[in-house]
## 1
Amino acid sequence: MSETPQAGAVPAYQTPILEHFPSLFRNRNFLLLWGGYVVSALGDRIHFLVMLKLLEMLKQHRIGTQETAQLNVMMLAPFLVLGPFTGVIADRLPRRTVMITSDFARVIIVILARTLFLALPAALHQSVPWMPTISYAVLLLLISELILAAFSAFFSPARTALLPNLVHPDQLLRANALTNAAGTIASLVGFIVGAILVRWHLGIAMYIDAGTFLTSGILLLFMTRTARVVGRAIPRDQRSSIFGEFRQGLNYLLAHKRALQVVMLMFLFWCAGAIILSGLTGIVTKKFNMSVDYFGIFLGIVGIGMMVGAAAVSLSRHGIPKEFGIAWAMALVGLFLFLFSVPEHWPWALAFLVIGGFFSAILMVSLDTLLQRIVPDFIRGRVMAIRDMVANVGLVGVAVPLAISTNIDDYILFVLRVLAIGIVGVGLWLVSFYYRRQSLPTPASIMLRFVRGYLSLVKHLEAGTAARIPTSGPTILVANHTTAYDPLVMQVTSKYRLIQFMMAKEYYEKKPFLYLYKAFGVIPVNRTGNDTASFRTALRVLKDGGCIGMYPEGKISDDGRMDEGRPGVALLALMSGATVVPAYIAGTNVHAGMVKDFLIRSKVTIYFGRPLRFDDLKILDRDAGREIATKRIMDAIIALRDRYETNPERRMSTSEARAREGGAGAGIIPAAIS
């Protein structure tokens, strides 16, 4: 019998469009899921080093790439083989229950493995007849790892499919970044602590490993039981066979090009990840002549780069642009993987790998978030399982040849270099693809990304009503002028139009901003006389349907207050028939020089007003029309100032301030200025 939801309730297989979500750090369910993942990641790293140490003990020689690859194949194969089942289970059953069951099962397996492998009978150390290079003990070890990984394969898609149900869509990127950063910290701690534990006491290390999975399961038990937390996506009356439902997920992925592209990019990334996870052991022990324990320390230090990368994403208030979070990040990951393979001294190699880890964290957070956003809840578990399968095709596909090759350490660096070059190529192709789709010219788009990031970080820049900028036709943007970086503030808020500013020549020629101004087509103005050439240039741009940025006060304000407007903007608008969009920039520092203005931290907000047209002034003579248009423009900017400015000293014009000061000097009490 199918389950009937209560009246007014949202069925578990539907995702509500509107629902109240607390902030991430007050969201109990997110914090418990986050905590469970972090503790589980800690246990995974300790467990991996325990398995490496057991392999070394059982084989009785220093292990390298081949042994690590064998262990990785056992860890990754369940994700590949069980993918059709894990995704369907994540969509059929309560996702929280799936994760809890997986954690407790892993506790039992680790404890049993501890009891078995620390008291092996001598007979199990004999070689397996059909695999003379592997003993029965090693075979049992690999089988136990296979069983443990099978439960991890059920845990992963359930977790990634459940997360979007717990947070607001606008919080998803930050939630993934925080999860990734914390998981990386756990990995860092796990590798370092695991390396210390296995050197001190292997048995205690295995018990601590089991304790981490137990803690993760207990945390998940305390999650609030709601429809969104339980996460049952497929009602009973809509279920088919396991493989039928898996095919639905596969067909969805094949039919949605964007989601398929994300999964294939993950596949390429994890191909490189397989070489690092498997080949780093041989590089550490053979190329740099260190013991296998340093493998964990290497990965732990690399985790610092990944942690910083994920933290950088979490601190981004407006998200990471796709061309940086995916395209540039992928190209840089490939570049630093290649550089890692070059040095003969380990400190340089490790430094390049850490930087590569920084960009890899940005890449994976961006890809995960994009996939979670575009895939609907009812099929998300199956798509995430297919994602795990495809990623593990890359991991296992690379690890298997490494596992069976006896001299892989001799050419592992060559393989890494070839794959790194391929990743750089794909990244650069994506960069070209993204920028070809931008409305602005490519050089301007690239520069604006860096400028927007800087202003967002240092100036905490926010924009209001930027949609009032017309997307086509001759347009003049006007604003108050208090700092040298005002043009950048206006340009980064105009995502679809390039603004060609008219700027005083003495500011235009100052380096290093000269190159930036040229890229944005800034029109220099000679303020020493009647500069008709710049006026004609601006008029030509508007006649061609362009967008001009101007400051009707004609200069940068020395005290932040607004002065009287000059007629140049009005004349240009009347002659070109352009639409004028007023704006007010609040929160800037009092003018203190071009460079200093740009470096001082502050909170800057730009507000746009209703666009102005002057068609009714065409019947007037030029002087009268220019005077009326100038007044309308300045009144519009002043109205924005009076509405949004919070600094009382700037809620008056320069002339009003002079009048107040003059009146006070004569002993007259000035009237209050609103």
Note: Residues 1-18, 665-674 have pLDDT under 50 and may be disordered.
## 2
Amino acid sequence: MPAFVYRDFSTLRAALLARRELALIDVREEAEFAESHPLFAVNIPLSKLELEAYRRIPRRSTPVTVYDNGDGRAEQAARRLRQFGYGDVALLTGGLAGWQAGGGELFQDVNTPSKAFGELVESRRHTPSLTAQQVKALIDRHADVVIVDARRFDEYQTMSIPTSTSVPGAELVLRINALAPDPNTQVIVNCAGRTRSIIGTQSLINAGISNPVAALRNGTIGWGLAGFALENQRQRRYTENVDNLAQAQQRARRVADAAGVRRIDRETLGLWQQDAVRTTYLFDVRSPEEYRAGHVSGSCSAPGGQLVQETDHYASVRGARVVLVDDDGVRANMSASWLAQMGWDAAVLDGLEDADFTERGDPAAQLPPPPPADEVTPAQLAALLGQEGTVLLDFTTSANYVARHIPGAHWVLRSQLPLALENLPPAKRYVLTCGSSQLARYAVPEVVALTGKPVQLLAGGTLAWMAENRPLEKGEGRLAAPRIDRYRRPYEGTDNPREAMQAYLDWEFGLVEQLERDATHGFTVL
């Protein structure tokens, strides 16, 4: 295999400023990535590279640059990406330290471009907001107010503002008239922190709705810091009824046009998808349930509010084209208006009919060829676990492992495999699993190479074990590696320290200044 190629900070900065396509990949685990990274770096951990590369970087000739913090994972990732068929793979000169040494700004947390953009929107538009105390007073006196939660429904269920209704961000302009038909009703938009409430509030303002609109300042974090109680497991969701669809369509189209969103038809989309030198993402921004019931062939599900919030996760090639699809003429236009302001080449696919939404379910993921493995059934594994020297390794996420795992299983992190193996009891044989055993299969040859012992794979993974109603355990009893596979967000859950929540807000407030120092973002605000 050819020697490694290197790209330095100045080369990548020039490409960002020129809006040329690039994928800057941080191959560390998410908790490590959240500590420090370039603005437009995307996190694809080495441990999950096989599962995510083709979806997130669909064009194999994309210029890909990978980095770590000097521990050798970037070199491993570069080799694998070449094996997967990527032809233009380079290492970042000096890794993360090289970026900083070259004068590059480093950012914290995850989904940072979207969060920084949200802060820029508020600073430029002076997006109205109300404090937790002001909103609590409105609730207490039963004022004419509608509170809408712009997060995913599962996030809303975890913790929510009293009386609020789940309306994920892309749904707001489409659904608000049914929720607040009286133009005098105060509408309040909240999320866990700041970004989605700012974007949601500004979406309604940009669309020109008649109601007074404000964000709940600092979201559920601000609510908790004020000492107010949050609800959980609430089921209030927006109604499927849409009032005055034609008006919502006109409003959304006007906003999209003002943002410079392009309009394309199926023929143009086909030409773009055949383009060998540009990447084109096709996202369906409706709800996951609508997507599974019927979608345009070749599209990926990316609910609009989350697409704007987590753009780096869905579209990992900066400078690519992003084409959005819906069946109502509202959600795609509103979502595209934000992507265009965030510097993306955004377009909406027009001219669709019901017959275009014919593909059902979730499409199978495209993955690199999996290695062969000697498989065992759940019954055979149960027998092996009764024999001395059998060590079961679970490669699922740490959160899934803590929630439920096969009795006796040890949680391991693939990128930390040599360390994990040192923390395990002596083995005569290893059996590997994860949720479906898809990721575990890719780890089989690595465990063989590191141990020289027989290695088998649980066919169908832990899900197959569960399907036979076999016993499960939960808890952190056998963690063989640090839980760095996921960054614990300070706005998740209800048990975060006050200091962590306040520090998170302080960080968000400083993002606009960081954007100015970085100067590569290309953001505009309507």
Note: The CA atoms of residues 119 and 207 lie 19 Å apart.
## 3
Amino acid sequence: MTRYVYDFDEPSDGGRELLGGKGIGLAEMTQLGVPVPGGFTITTDACRAYVARHQVPDGLDEEVDEHIARLEEKTGKRFGDTEDPLLLSVRSGAAISMPGMMDTILNLGLNDAAVEGVGASTGNPRFPRDSYRRLIQMYGEVVEGIDGQRFEQALADLKRERHAQQDVDLTADDLARLVETFKAIYRQETGDDFPQDPREQLRRAVLGVFQSWDNPRAQVYRRTYGIPDDLGTAVNVVQMVFGNMGERSATGVCFTRDPSTGEQGVYGEYLVNAQGEDVVAGIRTPQPVEQMREILPEAYDQLLDTMTRLERHYRDMQDVEFTVEDGRLYMLQTRSAKRTAAAAIKSAVDMAGEGLITQEEAIARIDPAQLDQLLHPRLDPTAQFEVAATGLNASPGAACGKIVLDADTAEERGKAGEAVILVRWETTPDDIHGLIQAKGVLTAHGGMTSHAAVVARGMGKPCVAGCEGLHIEVATKDVTIGGHKLREGDTITIDGGTGRVIVGEVPLVPPQINEDFETILVWADEVRRLMVWANADTPEDAAKAREFGAQGIGLCRTEHMFFGEERLPVVQEMILASDETGRRAALDRLLPFQQSDFEAIFEAMAGLPVIIRLLDPPLHEFLPPLEEATDDRMRQRIKVLHEANPMLGTRGCRLGIQWPEIYEMQVRAIARAAKAVQERSGEAPHVEIMHPLVGFKEELRRLRELTEDVMEEEAPEIEYLCGTMIELPRAALRADEIAEVADFFSFGTNDLTQTTLGMSRDDAEGKFLTFYLEDGVLERNPFETLDQNGVGDLMRIAVERGRSTKAEISLGICGEHGGDPASVEFCHRIGLDYVSCSPYRVPLARLAAAQAVLKEAHRAEYVAAGG
């Protein structure tokens, strides 16, 4: 029969996965000799068994009775006694910390008789009555699902009647009256009296904590942080120690280092004459823990010594809960502390310097996704505000500005020095000039890899996409955000890291890039194998990428160079031309623009490779909607170019084959730019030319021939590579054939995900994909984190087959997944040479690439050890 219960001082082989984070902490502290109340842990196995069958696992009740008997023997108290009863707390504790998500019940075992007996035996009738009203409320909320506001309102009403500012101002008689009120609420809500049998209380409390694993807030938390639904929670049954016994008793929460900055020192708060829930619930204003030194000096000194000991044992910043009962210290919990990115980096660097951890351990314990916090302005954590609406957290950082509804206005006002937020149903490449000048972007439609999201990330601008609470009336310039009626020119704040939208201005704090941050990245660079390149379309992007440590440009999208007041009309003239001669005349006028752009990018990336992708989007994207056409010729051309599914239509290499003069112009601009830069600097740029959307070897063979002809004509002395983006399943499956005419492959996983899954990302995100994620059909958004079993398998096949033909072929990824930590690790495992991501995700990718090496080494050690 499966064993479900372990005392804190009993060894078990299951570790954190079996005992949960809180349980393993209590067990390890007990075995270290740290002062911990007695108790036992009911394992996550029991929770999973209960959740699966909705009934108590066989043998669990008997095991709990056996461990209660052991606890009675250790404490000299009896569970259910009416004079000096053993009272218990019942606390959840999953393997992965989920603070505040599940439920706790304190003072379990009290009943009417015990309250009177304890009051008489201690001479302190207030203490048991205070504990009893807390038990009835917590039990009512957790076990019976009673709205906690009913209890809180009754408490507030009594305090107002008694002119009491705080709970501690209520007398013993006041609390006796409150107990009766709480019992009446319980009876009204359940139809039964509050249970007087301690065994029944315990049994139902344990089940209540099991059930809290699936409460709505726990489910949301797990989805947000990628925690599996099948872990379950352990339940810790602990002897109660009381911080509410009087002025020599207290409770508090402390950190061994500042969780906001990582600075050394003890940081925390405590309350005299209180129970633990009071500190976190904000019922009373706690005091800095340093003030404990004045009223409880012995307990304070012991607390400091214990915290130092725990940090050295766990070799990590600790978050501890403690209670002082009549001057005696008890530790109730220790766990690795939740911390900001700045604190995580500083504490890791400092601990490595102190010899507590190695540099490799410092690298491994930083969450790469947290680094986004350090690279963008963010909301002031002390600011008070109301969230009006939420969307997708499409690009991190925060921005305040005035609402503008079109790109031209954004450009005009932005250039005039105004802070503006571009608010659109969705953005298109034609909005690029407005995006450049805006502080941030808010869209009603689109997803994590929509145009707005991708461009904003590349620019390092915050973006909230797919905000369903946003409605725009373009004609009247009215905007509604979550029920708030606004107009163009009103101020809003967006938080691209969380997807929050706030009406009005919220103070921001600047990025926190410092020496510790640089130190971690230098250490990571010493470990990683993958190179980290950047997706950059402008000299400014390229310079920013290089500043953040990029080793090349893995994707320069040339279509972004076709917009602007001077260029777009020429592009449109080329599209509207009736013959090749007319197209070439317009392209000749575009060539100098492209050449100057390429020269600036080559100079910004001197000595490093630059992959330039030739024109990819369908031509209709450079023309206005049909109803905005300026003449019949344009209307006719728009109709001719119309496609039912343009993303699977005439785009990418298909454009280059049907109208080769377009790609000829672009290659000519590249060649002339490379030659000009070489002549000025004496060093030739590292040029790589990418043909997009290739699915057949013949497509790339023809376009390579075109590329070679133009390069030979314009700049025969310039060395270059010619390759393709793998973004179609067929290209991955026939990579051995395509490799015969390719120098490199770059996986365009945005489109490869769409074409493999048959999902339009703009249609899926915010619609059925949201339901899939909430309902558990999918665990991850495949447009954020690579679908390793589907899209990833195609990548593996392409790597294997491509290298079977050409062992030296260069392989990388330039889709948005190139900056996702889990996807970076996958790219390392399948043997890619580099990942490429937006400039502001380069530091994140550098760290993730190093962590991939460390995880691989850890797995190898585990296997070698017989694991």
Note: The first helix runs from residue 15 to 32.
